[in-house]
């Protein structure tokens, strides 16, 4: 694991707690939030058949997670059904049994072979009732949902309405879920963005240009921060912070005074100052001597073969999801904190806001001179 941890200051607590997790009921602290972790019920119903789906925005590594769920299930003698197009597949009964060889050669592929969807029907009571009819008719005992916070909100509601065991696997490039240091797809997205930044820097430094590069992140700046530090950006602007144009101008002027040859500014798409074009126009008004260009990376960041880190993370989480269900876990999201598998109540994972690490901004500022 080489990416910057937002939770490093909590490592001592987590290591102790993760080690004791399966033996006792625990209360632990996470970014000022208390999570209650309960010992799995010894009376839990035996899991013989499960369904797995991918939902919301696709993320590189989702295939690796499905593969791990399928193979771990079969390893433990559990039948596993792949549900196509997220919750829509559950509502429309689009599912089929998956076997060991059904998931051959998908480890290295981006996207999701189960396909994904944003299902409006699942947001309705009627839609979820249809989904439950099919769940029962297929004699499924539990559901594994791979997706982001929206998908987990749906899973939480479904599980409460019909007392269905569900377990979530965090699959989103945004890394905006509490209860895990990293989500599946985040590392690949950061590497894709950083690779693009490296290439843009080559041309920026050949022409003394100032580039504004917009990366994904409507509500969270994790991709922006990591790709900016990795790509040596002079500044990064994220949705969580209230950076002003004046602060940015000050930073750019300082660099110019220090003979900085090329400047790259990373902007998360949801930043409060506007999109990359808006920010570039505002900077141009005050620093007309800069030759300014804008690049929006867009969906490029969602695609591509998952990095080793994402494949390993997805494999660990997929196996842990199946093992969690076998142990009676339900309504939890499986994650990795300080390199240990953890199960966080799904409601807490959704509700808790995962914060950026302020120290990364301090580091970026020091290195931008
Ligand atoms: P990403 O983080 O990549 O956007 P996501 O899982 O957050 O992924 P969403 O589009 O927010 O993506 O949610 C995926 C699906 O989850 C929705 O299309 C819907 O089917 C279901 N869902 C989201 N919120 C709810 C809700 N309140 N009730 C029922 N279902 C929901």
Automatic annotation (TrEMBL):
Pathway named in the protein's UniProt entry: Carbohydrate degradation; glycolysis; D-glyceraldehyde 3-phosphate and glycerone phosphate from D-glucose: step 3/4
Reactions catalysed: beta-D-fructose 6-phosphate + ATP = beta-D-fructose 1,6-bisphosphate + ADP + H(+)
GO biological process: canonical glycolysis; fructose 1,6-bisphosphate metabolic process; fructose 6-phosphate metabolic process
Ranges of residues in domain Phosphofructokinase: 49-324
Chain residues that bind ATP: 57, 118-119, 148-151
Record carries keyword Glycoprotein: no
Active-site residues (renumbered): 174 (proton acceptor)
Family: Belongs to the phosphofructokinase type A (PFKA) family. ATP-dependent PFK group I subfamily. Prokaryotic clade 'B1' sub-subfamily.
Protein name: ATP-dependent 6-phosphofructokinase
Top-level taxonomy: Bacteria, Pseudomonadati, Bacteroidota, Cytophagia, Cytophagales
Name of the gene encoding the protein in the UniProt record: pfkA
